[in-house]
Amino acid sequence: MRAELTRKYGRLANLALARHFGLTLPPDLQQPLTDFASGRGISAIPQVVTLLDQADAHATEYHFFHWELEFPEVFFDQHGHALGEQAGFHAVVGNPPYVNAVATINFKHHS
């Protein structure tokens, strides 16, 4: 069930985020796009399917990651209500890009 919800809302999140990466959504198609992507519409015109496919392609190309979908327990309570100011992580630990760090250190050292 969680995988199905993540896939469905992931397409909506991809659609919203792809707009910031150059995907243009015609205003008259925003509701049909939302309805079809969320499963509220059982059929769609070809343009809607094409736009959703383009949004998914942007997600793959730019490696979209939707924190709220991957970690819902951090952003929503047990009833699905947003936690607002209480949501999120206290810290995020990651592996920095050491190649860039070394290049930066060497550049600064030689300047």
From TrEMBL:
Source organism: Candidatus Viridilinea mediisalina
Molecular function terms from GO: nucleic acid binding; site-specific DNA-methyltransferase (adenine-specific) activity
GO term, biological process aspect, one: DNA modification
Positions of the Type II methyltransferase M.TaqI-like domain: 57-101
InterPro entries: DNA_methylase_N6_adenine_CS, MethylTrfase_TaqI-like_dom
Pfam family, one: Eco57I
Protein name: Type II methyltransferase M.TaqI-like domain-containing protein
